[in-house]
Write a structure and sequence with these properties.
The structure is a homodimer.
Chain A: H1 25-29, H2 34-61, H3 66-71, H4 75-83, E1 91-92, H5 95-106, H6 114-136, H7 148-171, H8 180-189, H9 196-222, H10 227-235, H11 237-251, H12 279-310, H13 317-333, E2 340-341, H14 343-351, H15 358-374, H16 383-395, H17 401-409, H18 411-427, H19 429-449, E3 453-458, E4 465-467, E5 479-484, H20 490-505, E6 512-516, H21 525-540, E7 544-548, H22 552-559, H23 563-566, E8 571-572, H24 575-590
Parallel strand pairs in A: 5-6, 6-7, 7-8
Antiparallel strand pairs in A: 1-2, 3-4, 3-5
Helix pairs in contact in A: 2-14, 2-15, 2-16, 4-13, 4-15, 5-6, 5-12, 6-12, 6-13, 7-8, 7-16, 7-18, 7-19, 9-10, 9-11, 9-16, 12-14, 17-18, 18-19, 19-20, 20-21
């Protein structure tokens, strides 16, 4: 495939070129051969079959015309194949991002209008720009500020919101909402609109899909199929449901009896679209675009890392940002809406044997063919069928055990999970994830502002010092050693002042205070002033202040200040040295 | 003075009663005697003389009628005397808070209107409520999130802004602004309004006050006065300037020649006022009230602590919040505006011999007498004289050396100082202090998200381990010890994963990785998942993961998870134990 001679089999000449870092396709395209082609093509066929109903369903979830889901599954996949670093990630519309799109765009325009679709396209473009810029400026670490409890809580709550939003469709009730309260109120208020035939289609399809997932696979394995193949066949369940319910609706004329159908989907290639560049719309969508970018990236990168680890491959998170960013820009330019890497379809892609991102490009061809040829057949597809596929898909996202697990591990993590779930359900996705992030940061800052300080003594027979309350250790009445279990910075500087003053003020024999700094990773300027204040206060009481086990970077900085000149005591390399040096002095002093 | 018999001389019965914690007056009122009364009264006279021109000047700085400055110096002092814990703090209107009041209220109403004054009263009430609630809920630690560099930068920039705002008054130019750009533009645009007589009064007074401060004091000391008395006399300079310029303005009819004067100040006791309780006005003022509360508290508490330390007394920061809060509520109920403890006047109070908060109550009587009797005499007081006293007072707040000092110590602290100064000057006080706080927190989070990790080895002849790059240490090829210099939490969990993977993936002989956790003060749930991922990844590579020197609280938590069951290696009490245990194994393995 490569027009450059390959010297070492697994690495083409371009693969080591610096430019390959920004075009990961160069790292594998040179070695692409017939075997890889076959594997990728097989995977692409399976993912295509899975992706067609999903694309339609998620577009409807986002409040968009179904064809936009197909468009979002064509060019974005090609862009990711060029710029992405994961070999198994399958990008396209996903449930949570579709829900977030609906929440963001729903504030700005009425569903079904051209403005609504334009806002979604603009959202994809902005999100693409944000992701690409984050990648180029290597800001991928920002995603780390979404803690695991916040993500887990957010995904669970989003799954519940999505499922609740689809119940209306299954009942044949229109309307919706962005929070659980709105959704339930809409259901109750409009229950009289319920369409019994839609209900039958929806409930039957949901039950069928659950059975396919839980019952069919074991059955197929019992009948001799390999587990992997059985799994893949079970994944085709939605396609069967789509085919059967569409046929039934057409044959029995159910659309005339009130069953909501997808209707006419324009056939053809994705249109060329341009986002809106209005200052107003960008201002209104910015926060949403940022949240969608970060949530999409975090979800996608964790799937990519999990799958890469299985084959001992590595992905580059910053380049992943560029891959997802260009995918979103491609989506905006071809009539799509925000996309990211999907968990279920990536696993299918991986299990089906995808070897390179080319599988994604082949999937794009499959969806393109569907958009060209298949759409007339989908006219009579009931919306309730798509709602059923969504419900079955998202309920696997819901994991309420995270509440119990976080409670057992730490109350702070539990608070983050519970708050994120409660606010996402109560006030919607954007408030939920924002509250989660802000709360986790606030709790972290709160914790570091009240650091753990342990008084330590020598573990007998060693040179090791531990907490006097937890271990049997040796101490000396004239010597207090305080191990500060936190970096010293502005938020806890005053705390330390108070702590040291309180500790020494009621204890007469103390002559030396040693601050053991093995856990002090930074001393900022505010903390330096506090140390100076402590030093001065102790000096007035006739007590010397010493430091021990100060880390290199911290010591470098202290040497640049005047603190060491004023320090009444010494700085010891190790706490043991400090004990050896100070204990005899003290004894002579007492003698 | 007390109607309760005192058992121990320095502590009355009420002083130990639990209720005394909330009414610090009980801690000293029982022992109050004639000596204390004399000392406090002398101090009160001196502070009163200093406070009269300051109260008028700061009220004008806040854009309020001058009598509101007097009102803010009466009841608030009584409230603080009852609820405050500092024995020397003198509360009342101060320069920075007056500037912040002008900025907050200036957004809502036109200067000179009744709405403007009402907004200032409401601001004092809200600030009082916020402070009192923070005190009752013991939220004083929140003030610690204002780092020293941010405060220093903010005070310096505020001093410059205030001085610039007063230049207009000295030139006889009306109008102003809330940022340096607005102020300078106003000066340049309206330069033609300049009144030469006002200029002469302003410049002469400024020069006189600077001379009093720098020149008079040495002169008085030379002529035999005690330094302390000379200092106090020099503090009376503004009163002399007020008297002379008022007389001159009256005698020469300068008010008719364009010199702006204070004009009629109503005589009488402070009026009883109620704040506005409109939802709108509370919403608009909330952020301002919060900022004023926190800045006022931080300034006040640091003065109080400095003065308390000189006499080995302690103040209670949470009760200080209540003291300042009730002072502000008292101010709002008696026609005043936000107050806090002032640096200069507290030092004067202390130096003049104030022994108890009763000195503040006596000062209140002094100011009350001034409000009753003195105001007609102040009719012809030129505003330029007050502007001169403000300029001389605030220039002592300006300390640009903080830029150099923070640059030398740490770039992060410098960034906080420089940003706070630049944004305060450029966009005003509220944006300035908010930007400073947000930036310091963001930089702290950024730093902790990329922790320092050191590979360590044994310092020969000890049991102590240090960085292999900084010290001559012993290591073993099959053993890598990484000391993580930060708590492990969501923001840096992934960083550690990447770091460990990168370190071991290119180094074949490694059989054991030890994470030395002496500086790890927390492992949150996100970090636990990362440790599990690291453990699994290393296991697949045939490498065991060990932990050493895990702190008690961290170990307790790990024991509540499943991590220790899955851990391929062990947890060692000390790093030395780990080395002893693993090195022979490794050697046998290699033999």
């Amino acid at each position: 495939m490569s027009r450059f001679p390959t010297r070492h089999r697994p690495q083409s000449r371009w693969a080591r070129h610096p430019v390959a870092r920004y075009f990961p396709i160069l790292q594998w395209a040179g070695d692409y051969d017939r075997d890889s082609l076959t594997s990728d093509a097989v995977a692409a066929v399976i993912v295509t079959i899975m992706l067609i109903p999903q694309s339609l369903a998620y577009a409807l979830l986002a409040g968009l015309p179904p064809e936009m889901g197909l468009y979002a599954s064509i060019l974005p996949l090609v862009a990711y194949a060029i710029f992405g670093t994961s070999r198994a990630l399958a990008v396209g519309p996903v449930a949570v991002i579709s829900l977030m799109t609906a929440a963001a765009v729903g504030n700005m325009a009425l569903e079904g209008t051209a403005e609504y679709a334009m806002a979604a396209i603009t959202l994809a473009f902005m999100s693409g720009l944000i992701l690409t810029l984050m990648g180029l400026f290597r800001l991928g670490f920002l995603a780390n500020f979404l803690s695991h409890p916040v993500i887990a809580g957010f995904i669970t709550a989003s799954g519940l919101l999505i499922a609740a939003s689809q119940i209306g469709t299954i009942l044949g009730i229109s309307g919706g909402g962005h929070s659980m309260v709105e959704l339930l109120r809409n259901l109750v208020t409009n229950l009289s609109q319920m369409n019994p035939i839609t209900l039958v289609i929806g409930v039957t399809t949901t039950a069928f899909l659950f059975w396919v997932r839980k019952g069919l696979k074991p059955l197929l394995i019992q009948s001799g199929l390999r587990p992997r193949l059985a799994d893949l066949l079970a994944k085709a369940g939605p396609v069967a449901a789509v085919a059967v319910t569409t046929l039934a609706t057409w044959a029995f004329g159910l659309a005339d009896r009130g069953v909501a159908i997808v209707g006419s989907i324009p056939s053809g290639l994705p249109p060329l679209t341009l986002p809106s560049f209005g200052v107003d719309i960008w201002g209104q969508l910015f926060v949403s675009a940022l949240l969608i970018s970060v949530i999409g990236f975090v979800e996608s990168v964790s799937v990519a890392q999990t799958l890469a680890a299985r084959k001992r491959q590595r992905i580059d998170p910053d380049q992943e940002l560029v891959g997802l960013g260009t995918a979103n820009i491609a989506s905006a330019l071809s009539g799509g809406y925000p996309v990211t890497g999907g968990f279920a379809r990536s696993v299918v892609n991986y299990d089906a044997g995808a070897e390179t991102p080319a599988a994604g490009a082949f999937t794009a061809i499959g969806i393109m063919l569907a958009a060209l040829l298949l759409t007339p057949l989908l006219h009579f597809l009931p919306k309730a069928t798509l709602a059923a596929t969504i419900i079955v898909a998202v309920l696997s996202l819901v994991d309420l055990t995270i509440l119990k697990r976080s409670w057992d591990y730490s109350r702070i993590d539990f608070a983050a999970v519970a708050t994120t779930i409660a606010i996402t359900l109560g006030l919607g996705v954007e408030m939920g994830v924002s509250a989660g992030v802000i709360l986790s940061l606030a709790l972290f800052l709160y914790k570091t502002s009240r650091p753990h300080v342990a008084e330590v003594g020598l573990v007998p027979g060693t040179q090791h010092f531990r907490n006097i309350l937890r271990h049997k250790v040796e101490t000396h009445p004239a010597l207090v050693t305080l191990r500060i279990d936190e970096s010293l910075y502005f938020a806890n500087a005053r705390f330390l002042e108070d702590y040291v003053t309180a500790r020494v003020s009621c204890d007469q024999p103390i002559r030396h205070v040693i601050l053991m700094c093995s856990a002090v990773n930074e001393i900022d300027m505010s903390a330096l002033e506090s140390l100076e204040a402590i030093n001065a206060r102790l000096r007035d009481m006739g007590i010397k202040l010493h430091l021990s086990e100060v880390k290199g970077p911290v010591m470098d900085r202290l040497k640049r200040s005047h603190f060491l000149d004023a320090l009444t005591g010494q700085v010891f390399l190790s706490q043991y040295d400090a004990m050896l040096a100070l204990t005899p002095t003290v004894m002579r002093g007492q003698a």
